[in-house]
Amino acid sequence: QVQLVESGGGLVQAGASLRLSCAASRPTFSSYYFADYYMGWFRQAPGKERVFVGGINFSGTKITYADSVKGRFTVSRDNIQNTLYLQMDSLNPDDTAVYSCAAIHTYEDNPRMGWKDYQYWGQGTQVTVSS
User: Fold this and answer.
1) How far is CA 72 from CA 52, 75, 89, in A?
2) Half-sphere exposure of 40 (CA within 13 A, CB side)
3) Which residues contact residue 10 at a Cβ distance below 8 angstroms, ignoring those fewer than 6 apart?
4) CA angle 77, 99, 35 (to 5 degrees)
5) pLDDT at position 27, please?
6) pLDDT in tens, 24-34
7) Of the candidates 57, 66, 72, 60, which has an alpha carbon nearest to the alpha carbon of residue 18?
8) Which of 7, 124, 19 shows the shortest CA–CA distance to 74?
9) Which one of 1, 24, 80, 112 has the fewest beta carbons within 10 angstroms of its own beta carbon?
10) What is the C-alpha to C-alpha distance for residues 24 and 58, in angstroms, rounded to an integer?
């Protein structure tokens, strides 16, 4: 079991950058650590379905991105600080959404792009990009 809390969202102009963080913590009774989880970022715009943004394997050696964010967004993790990051550059109004991090307990490297694959979710943070 893991608990996730996102931060770093806000209102920015097109072309700006934001860095989202997802802090993970675990109950004392849990035997799993942050490094035991594949982590993903998803976003959901008003009236639209939740979509995959990027994912990173447990060791941080394999990262997958949605085509819409490739070259602009960077997913990373710090397994010492128990934190997942999403660096977002060259933002545009189409990036406006609630961004959520998610976790699945697995050591497999294959990308997890479906939101139903994930076991644990943060509450989300709003990102709004004005034109």
Assistant:
1) 15, 10, 5
2) 27
3) 18, 126, 127, 128
4) 25
5) 67
6) 988 666 677 89
7) 72
8) 19
9) 80
10) 13
pLDDT tens digits, 12-62: 999 999 999 999 988 666 677 899 999 999 999 999 999 999 999 999 999
Task: Let me know how long the chain is.
Answer: 131
Q: What is the CA radius of gyration of the chain?
A: 14
DSSP-derived secondary structure for the chain: --EEEEE--EEEETT--EEEEEEEE--TT----GGGEEEEEEEE-TTS--EEEEEE-TTS--EEE-TTTTTTEEEEEETTTTEEEEEE-S--GGG-EEEEEEEEE----S----GGG-SEE---EEEEEE-
Cβ atoms of residues 102 and 113 within 8 Å: no
Q: Which of 114, 123, 126, 125 is nearest to 4 (CA)?
A: 123
The pair of structure tokens assigned to 14 is 């097109």
Query: What is the C-alpha to C-alpha distance for residues 23 and 16, in angstroms, rounded to an integer?
Result: 23
Q: Using CA atoms, how far apart are residues 128 and 115, in angstroms rounded to an integer?
A: 22
CA proximity to 39, closest of 73, 68, 2, 67: 2
